[in-house]
Design a protein that fits this description.
Elements lengths: L1 H29 L3 H4 L1 H9 L18 H12 L2 H14 L2 H26 L2 E2 L5 E2 L2 H9 L2 H35 L3 H16 L2 H30 L4 H12 L4 H4 L2 H16 L7 H4 L7 H28 L11 H13 L3 H32 L3 H20 L3 H41 L23
Antiparallel strand pairs: 1-2
Length: 468
């Protein structure tokens, strides 16, 4: 475990940060800052206000909408890291860590657009009309890297369906025990039953659950944060100045060194929004849209929601606590103390409810990532899928009653490995993604509802899901 911790420290603090930042900057420049140029279009797609979304994408009862696919991915990567991880970053890196989180998210949107567009291009259509896909699929179909795809799928199944879900379940159980005095075993039974009720309903139930819960939890948390900011409106200008000055090491007392702020902000930002990690494309591939870039843009907006909205909400709440740096607490406990300081005693149970919603939705999203990749490895065997679902439910219960520090460290290592594989793959495939993006922009300029036709991009092959 000491070796794994050392390897994790090197991987997450240097290798992945360098690769993900370099990728994000390159894709941002190469695409002409597309995440900013098409931001208005993206908002319309999310809200369903763009005429381009009214073209009957859901043609089958087993298919899900672009918004539902967006919510599945958001449900997975908006989790306890948004509540606890941000507080840790602010304590260790100072207020400037929040600034570097913002920068990481803004360039990460471009990386997210590339990987999720590729997932849509190389998705597969199931006999029942639904879709599936993700990095393992574009590794295999676009590059012929089938063995690498299988290794990637195995890592995803282990990391998300089992390792991360034990940690998320443990977080929920601890929160329920601390606030409502429920024993971990009782909480485990409740959480396991709720998980089973959702995942045994298949993709449609997962999509329906995510599209109901995700907007409520995200909007609710951000609204409370805005309430806190309004209550402290006189302090906000000074707080913004402090964040920027600390980001560049100009406030040594409160902000710490620039390097520390940057390291903590970038590390927590990347870890939270997962841009480039290869997780969100598993959800992005499931929707039925008329053009891959539509889903790519929506998934890129997920990075914005995760970091610019939700992580910022936590960061501001913590920074408004006068003695946050010397409170003697960090992580979720510091977030609870900070919110209770602003709104009174209801802040503590509110954070507990947020933890439950954030972590439980992550359980469901993580499970679906595992299911998609197990399907890639073993095919659509209903008996094996039922066994897998049962194992996932049991794992959730075990997670509630076990000590999980070692599991978390192993999961970090496997996710880091997975991210490197995905970063290399999308770098090789990025020229194809840019062709598809160019086609989307061209059709928009012509006033059309963008529709992807494989005949218009003959260099892109093995795209059977788009043949019709």
């Amino acid at each position: 475990m000491q070796f794994i911790n050392t390897l994790n420290g090197f991987l997450w603090s240097y290798v992945l940060i360098g690769l993900l930042l370099a990728s994000g900057i390159y894709y941002t420049l190469r695409s002409g800052f597309i995440q900013f140029r098409l931001f208005g279009n993206t908002i319309k797609l999310i809200l369903g206000k763009d005429p381009a979304m009214g073209d009957g994408q859901i043609a089958d009862k087993n298919q899900i909408s672009a918004f539902q696919a967006f919510c599945i991915s958001i449900s997975s990567h908006v989790g306890t890291g948004n509540l606890a991880g941000v507080a840790i970053a602010v304590v260790l890196g100072g207020p400037g860590a929040l600034f570097w989180m913002w920068i990481t998210a803004l360039i990460g949107c471009a990386t997210s657009l590339i990987e999720n567009t590729l997932a849509q291009v190389y998705k597969e259509k199931e006999p029942d009309g639904s879709f599936k896909g993700g990095p393992a699929y574009y590794m295999s179909k676009a590059l012929g890297w089938t063995t690498m795809g299988k290794i990637f799928s195995f890592i995803v199944v282990f990391t998300f369906a089992f390792a991360f879900n034990t940690v998320q379940a443990n977080t929920i159980a601890q929160a329920l025990e601390g606030t409502f005095n429920l024993s971990s075993s009782t909480g485990g039974i409740i959480i396991a039953i709720l998980t089973g009720l959702v995942i045994f309903g298949g993709l449609k139930r997962i999509a329906h659950f995510s599209s109901l819960v995700v907007p409520v939890m995200a909007i609710g948390y951000v609204v409370v944060a805005i309430l806190v900011l309004v209550m402290n409106i006189a302090h906000i200008p000074a707080l913004i100045v402090l964040i920027v000055k600390s980001a560049f090491g100009m406030d040594a007392v409160l902000g710490g060194a620039m390097g520390v702020a940057m390291l903590q902000g970038v590390k927590r930002g990347l870890y939270s929004n997962e841009a480039g990690m290869g997780s969100a494309p598993n959800a992005a591939a499931t929707s039925n849209v008329s053009h891959p870039v539509k889903q790519g843009l929506m998934q890129a907006f997920g990075v914005f929601v995760d970091t610019i909205l939700i992580c910022s909400a936590t960061g501001f709440i913590v920074l408004l606590l006068p003695n946050y740096a010397t409170a003697g607490e960090t992580g979720i406990k510091l977030t609870q103390i900070a919110l209770s300081h602003e709104v009174g005693m209801w802040g503590n149970p509110f954070i507990t409810v947020c933890i439950f919603l954030f972590a439980f939705s992550s359980l469901i999203g993580n499970y679906y990532y595992g299911e998609t990749n197990l399907s890639f490895l073993l095919g659509d065997n209903k008996i094996l899928m039922t066994i897998f679902r049962l194992l996932c439910v049991v794992t959730v219960y075990i997670g509630c009653i076990a000590e999980l520090s070692d599991v978390w460290n192993i999961a970090d290592l496997s996710m880091g490995t997975m991210a490197i594989m995905n970063i290399v793959t999308i770098a090789v495939l990025s020229p194809k993604a840019f062709l598809v993006i160019k086609d989307y922009i061209k059709q928009r300029k012509e006033g059309k509802n963008p529709v992807f036709h494989v005949k218009d991009t003959p260099s892109i092959v093995n795209t059977e899901a788009w043949d019709d």
